[in-house]
Amino acid sequence: xxxxxxxxxxxxxxxxxxxxxxxxxxxxxxxxxxxxxxxxxxxxxxxxxxxxxxxxxxxxxxxxxxxxxxxxxxxxxxxxxxxxxxxxxxxxxxxxxxxxxxxxx
Length: 105
Prior knowledge:
The chain is mostly helical.
């Protein structure tokens, strides 16, 4: 089947594709190495509990190194946090008041 261009004397494209000359030469040509399928990569999934433990350790390190707290004080603070000791509306108001007074907001 040939495709004719309306208003033209010849086909839009030829019926046979044109040959592309190979200019690389046969003697210098290297064979292509066959490559097999790539094996699947290893995957690591970190649980929510693992993330929480990592965050706890990061907080403890920051409290000791940057805030200058001792190991015992850090342990007591983390225990109080885990037990919900800072989850009261009165304490939240106190913290908000201190933030406003310090100008850090």
